[in-house]
Design goal:
8-stranded mixed sheet, Nonspecific Lipid-transfer Protein, Chain A, Serine Threonine Protein Phosphatase 5, Tetratricopeptide repeat, 665 residues, 3 domains, alpha+beta
Length: 665
């Protein structure tokens, strides 16, 4: 830390000296030279070469595992929706092969080259996978007369395309069950591409999921949906061009399909406890519930007749996120490690092949045992050492700067941070135990970004001097510092185009050096937005099927977080909402600019609204006019209509898909 401070001081003195003699200016020629070229700087090239020298290139096992069992892929690489729009292009990452370009970390490039391999793979007798058709993997188990499908991808279009390969090369047989390994959309959203809701309701198809699945499947992106969706654009690099200087993947897969049909069919069978068993069309399954690991509702399971263990997303070909950059509840890295230990105690002695929901399988009891132990040790080390350093008085930022896996664990490619990172995850461990505050009172009530930025820039002698410091830092390859300085200038004055360009270029170089695909995406998205204010709407976070699955109390929670306190100021209103089709009645009270759901209270109200719940959903999510519902007799209002109008007028009507700025004020 002292060396870093000395370096910053030296840069300050150098900039001040250059300004004093008039040597550091921003002429039109200098401005033109500052424009982005998309090229890596000599410092980035050197950094990537130095990083490459630390990598275990002699370990080629992952290359072999990623290719093992390949059968075929689609002849047409374009997967389209019903309107003909491309949802996923299987050829989009064909560039990710050969030596790493100067604009990509060599470790990240190696990982992308393996993730991009797409098609149908034979894992073992009666076990198949389709990989590369989505960010997740679909696994297929052959039963006596048909299939069990595990994790039917994100959207119906990719799931249907994956199943077409299975039908062509394995056989066109009925699906008897679909297993959702956990509650994230890329593991259930494509279900309607392979089975129909009618077949599920008739009992022809089982939908099997862990306890708590429905609650968490619809709630994780519900309350904070707009913010998470906005941040997910950064995490996955949605708006970036695919290419050596752009997006090259998403860490656990290449990309999330865009423009497809995300669906949800509710589970018919819930796994409530570890040790629970089930037999589907002659295939026995043993379950292990693992709540609070990679997802709030998750499970591993074992097929004893096949000696096959599925570890869902609790084991991967990369370190995972304890706290995703898009945002989520902080996960428990200790529980994660402990559940992997339990998995091996339950199933390890019987496991001949292990497969997961992202990436490729592993074969052989010793290989599986070694992999799970090393992967488990990485999460346990992350937890234990973050807590140890925390208890020595180090802050989250200081821990992130210090912590690193032991060499034995970093020699395993699957412990590298292509998705989660030790830096980001150690901060998540700190947050889980201590929260955001580092105990330094100077950070207890800091100035907001814009106010602080103006004062920092003034303290540095004005924007020109601050920009000079940023440019010197950039030229020296000190991109973290140049980004810090340029960001302050931009937040002090967002019209400063030169500062925005230095910020963009600093982000780019850090992106080119990042081993984590998510860090790369976030840096490059930051560069994109530093140059141009975002205008692309965020993707929706809740699909129609998920909206239908939302409980009525959750719907009213959504209303409550939209109350604008200024619009609600002074209002005291009680409204009853009655849904006859569900035999539900809720009393909502607005007071003190707070909306409270009092449940089925029969206390007096100012107005009563009676309507089928689907019509209420249409009014909230599809823009159905309340007036049209009244005219058609769908909605009935008893009591004071003015009170109802006043009640609804307090809601913030801002567009949840509006792309609020992140790297600018």
């Amino acid at each position: 830390m002292l060396a870093s401070n000395r370096k910053s001081r030296q840069l300050w003195l150098k900039a001040s000296a250059l300004f004093s003699v008039g040597l550091l200016t921003w002429s039109p020629a200098a401005q033109a030279q500052a424009q982005v070229t998309g090229a890596a700087t000599p410092q980035t090239i050197a950094a990537n070469r130095a990083f490459s020298a630390t990598l275990p290139w002699d370990n080629t096992s992952e290359d072999e595992l990623a290719k093992r069992g390949f059968v075929a892929t689609l002849e047409d690489p374009l997967i389209r929706n019903a309107a003909g729009k491309v949802v996923l292009d299987l050829s989009a990452y064909d560039f990710a092969q050969g030596p790493a370009p100067e604009t990509a970390n060599p470790s990240l490039w190696r990982h992308a080259a393996l993730l991009r391999i797409h098609g149908l793979f034979k894992v073992a007798p009666k076990i198949w996978q389709v990989r590369g058709f989505d960010i997740s993997v679909m696994s297929i188990i052959e039963t006596d007369t048909g299939y069990i499908i595990i994790d039917p991808l994100t959207v119906a279009e990719t799931a249907k395309a994956a199943m077409s390969l299975v039908k062509k090369h394995v056989g066109d047989k009925p699906i008897h069950a679909v297993i959702y390994s956990h509650s994230h959309a890329d593991h259930f959203g494509g279900v309607k591409g392979i089975v129909s809701e009618a077949d599920v309701q008739s009992g022809k198809v089982k939908i099997i999921a862990p306890i708590g699945f429905m609650e968490h499947a619809v709630s994780e992106n519900l309350i904070a949906g707009p913010a998470m969706s906005r941040r997910a654009v950064f995490q996955f690099g949605t708006t970036l061009e695919r290419g050596p200087a752009g997006q090259v993947g998403a860490g656990i897969g290449m990309e999330v399909p865009v423009g497809g049909s995300l669906g949800l069919i509710a589970p018919t069978d819930t796994i409530e406890r570890t040790g629970q068993t089930m037999t589907v069309d002659g295939m026995k399954i043993e379950f292990q519930v693992t709540p609070g690991t990679e997802a709030p509702a998750e499970m591993n399971f074992f097929f004893p007749d096949l000696g096959a263990l599925c570890l869902a997303e609790n084991a991967n070909v990369t370190m995972h996120n304890i706290l995703p950059p898009r945002g989520a509840l902080v996960r428990d890295s200790k529980a994660w490690a402990d559940y992997l230990t339990e998995s091996m105690n339950l199933f390890g002695a019987r496991t001949d092949v292990m497969f997961v929901s992202h990436g490729w399988p592993r074969w052989g009891r010793q290989e599986v045992a070694t992999y799970v132990a090393n992967h488990r040790d990485a999460y346990k080390y992350l937890h234990d050492q973050s807590v140890r350093l925390m208890n020595q008085g180090m802050t989250a930022t200081e821990i992130a700067e210090t912590i690193a896996l032991p060499e034995l664990l970093t020699k395993q490619w699957y412990n590298h941070g292509y998705y989660g990172t030790m830096s980001h995850n150690s901060k998540a461990v700190y947050q889980r135990y201590l929260g955001w505050y580092d105990a330094n009172p100077a950070n207890l009530n800091p100035l907001p970004p814009e106010a602080a930025a103006k004062r920092y820039v003034d303290a540095m002698g004005g924007a020109d001097k601050a920009l000079g410091l940023a440019k010197i830092a950039y030229d020296a390859g000190d991109y973290r510092w140049s980004a810090e300085l340029a960001s302050r200038i931009v937040f002090a004055d967002s019209t400063n185009k030169l500062a925005r360009e230095v910020l963009a270029q600093s982000f780019e170089q850090m992106g080119y050096q990042a081993e984590s695909m998510l860090w790369r995406n976030m840096y490059l998205n930051g560069a994109q937005e530093a140059r141009k204010t975002p205008s692309v709407p965020n993707a929706g976070t809740v699909a129609p099927d998920m909206i239908s699955a939302i409980s009525s109390p959750q719907l009213f929670d959504l209303l409550a977080i939209r109350v604008d306190p200024e619009k609600a100021k002074g209002k005291n209103i009680a409204v009853a909402f009655v849904f006859p089709d569900r035999n539900e009645r809720y009393r909502l009270v607005l007071r003190n600019s707070v909306m409270v759901n009092e449940g089925p209270s029969t206390e007096p109200v100012d107005a009563t609204v009676t309507m089928p719940r689907p019509a209420f959903l249409g009014m909230l999510f599809s823009g159905t006019s309340p007036a049209s519902l009244v005219l058609r007799g769908v909605m009935k209002i008893d009591g004071k209509t003015d009170s109802l109008r006043a009640f609804m007028s307090t809601l913030d009507n801002s567009d949840p898909k509006a792309p609020f700025p992140i790297v600018t004020p």
